[in-house]
């Protein structure tokens, strides 16, 4: 879903009022799981020309903060107005997240608030324009996401691999625990016949290359990462039941 959402930047012809945007700041966590992007968006609000002249502006500017959490599979979007911030306070929050019962579905939540303090004597008119614009954006937003999803499918992109922790110093850091049955993400099912063996590893909690090769053979980095997550889940599930010391 994020790949489709990101296609509307820096500007989107499907949103006529969305004139342009620029990235003000972008940061990423050390492991790359969290990316925070702050943008200034230029909006051409559909308002009477007279009202724009009285206000002395042609465009409105909004600050948007996007927080993408690849580990939790969530995208949180916070927006507030920069233009007329002393007269009008506009706030909007949107969230994309994996459905709790079906991880292949996406949940979407959207809330907004408008606090009109004063607007040159045109408070009622400005409020009506803002409400109309917001209602239009809700309807348009779904259509645009669906358009970009079809666009990705047309380019042959039908599956986006899930984020996995990066390799650090030859060892893999543990990702979020996930339940496993049979085989997971390319890890052979025959290697999971005795899950307690996967837990019987060095006391420092790290799986070295020799240990992985001894029990499972040569694995790809993705398979090694899946193994780490499997072991973490087994530890939590069998806590206190399985020894943590490996017998040579």
Can you walk through the features of this model?
Residues 1-157 form the PRELI/MSF1 domain. This is PRELI/MSF1 domain-containing protein. Pfam families: PRELI. The protein has 248 residues and is an alpha+beta fold. The chain has helices spanning 2-5, 49-55, 123-154, 195-199, 209-216, 221-237; strands spanning 18-28, 34-43, 60-69, 74-81, 88-98, 106-116, 167-168, 171-172. A hairpin with a 4-residue loop joins strand 3 and strand 4. The longest helix is centred in the middle third of the chain and has 32 residues, at 123-154.
Can you count the helices?
6
| Helix fraction bin | 25-40%
What order do the SSEs take from the amino end to the carboxyl end, as H and E?
HEEHEEEEHEEHHH
Strand order of the largest sheet: 1-2-3-4-5-6
Kindly provide the radius of gyration, computed on alpha-carbon positions and rounded to a whole number of angstroms: 25 Å
Shape descriptor reads: elongated
Global mean pLDDT:
76
Number of strands: 8
Largest sheet: 6 strands, antiparallel
Structural class, by secondary structure, is: alpha+beta
pLDDT < 50 stretches:
170-206, 242-248
Instruction: Report the end-to-end length measured between terminal Cα atoms.
Output: 47 Å
- Percent range for β-strand residues: 25-35%
